[in-house]
Amino acid sequence: MADTSQADALRITANELKRRLLAGEDFVFIDTRNPQAWAQSDRKARNAIRVPLENLEENISRIPKDQPIVAYCT
Fold first, then answer.
1. SS3 62
2. What are phi and psi for residue 32, nearest 5 degrees?
3. What CATH number is given to the structural domain containing 13?
4. Which of 4, 8, 14, 59 is surrounded by the most beta carbons within 10 Å?
């Protein structure tokens, strides 16, 4: 059986994220949706860095390393 404790430690609920944002914490948002899903959506996080998962390696340098990162998709 795989140990999921580390993976669980890296997850955050929407409610926890909201609480932490309201408390003044800064996060970098990474939108990992593919281009089609992104184009069809009317919901986009302001200032999110768009990095589709299939292009993660070539865009890794665009992601700041000095702040917590929240990646999201649909």
1. helix
2. -100, 10
3. 3.40.250.10
4. 59
